[in-house]
Design goal:
With 154 residues, this protein is α+β, with helices and mostly antiparallel strands. It folds into 2 domains: 31 residues; 120 residues, Sandwich (Immunoglobulin-like). 22% of the residues lie in helices and 36% in strands. It has 2 helices and 10 strands. A hairpin with a 2-residue loop joins strand 2 and strand 3. The longest helix has 21 residues. It is globular and about 40 Å long. Bound molecules: copper (II) ion (CU). Copper (II) ion binds next to loops.
Length: 154
């Protein structure tokens, strides 16, 4: 019986390891260094972000470590846009998927697609100090439509 119980955490661990292997922006402690989707009750500030064709305004944002931000995003362009927060290697993967399937509904955590005139929100909790990227991964937008989030010490 004791042996059977010991098997369960090992199976769970191997599942975690295989997941980490697929996503290269997960660190050795199995955390995503870009952070993770947050909840409304944790939000410490709203930051407005405007999308135009093809850039974000502002394209440099400063937050503090561990902070949860509500990004209030409005698309003032004439084309649809997305906003994705993450490490650049991960954003590149998403951009590659969009090139193959531009009309696929975004399934990734913290990804939002807005039609012209639409407004949306992303609630995101940042982790440790560092530089995080955000971008619109849609074909023809990804190279220009990018920004940096500087996660600074409290
Ligand atoms: Cu775009």
């Amino acid at each position: 019986m004791t042996q059977f119980i010991k098997i369960i955490p090992l199976a769970a661990l191997s599942m975690l390891l295989s997941t980490a292997g697929m996503a290269s922006s997960i660190d050795a402690n199995n955390r995503n260094p870009a952070g993770h989707p947050g909840t409304a009750s944790e939000v410490s500030q709203d930051i407005k972000v405007t999308q135009v064709d093809n850039m974000f305004l502002p394209n440099e944002i400063r937050v503090t470590e561990g902070e949860t931000i509500r990004f209030v995003v409005i698309n003032k362009g004439d084309h649809r846009h997305e906003m994705v927060i993450g490490m650049m290697d991960n954003l590149r993967k998403i951009a590659k998927q969009r090139r193959k399937n531009p009309d696929e509904i975004p399934a990734e955590a913290g990804v939002m697609r807005l039609q012209p005139g639409e407004k949306g929100e992303i609630i995101w909790t940042f982790g440790q100090i560092g530089e995080i990227d955000f971008a619109c991964p849609l074909p023809g937008h990804f190279k220009a439509m990018r920004g940096k989030i500087y996660v600074e010490k409290k």
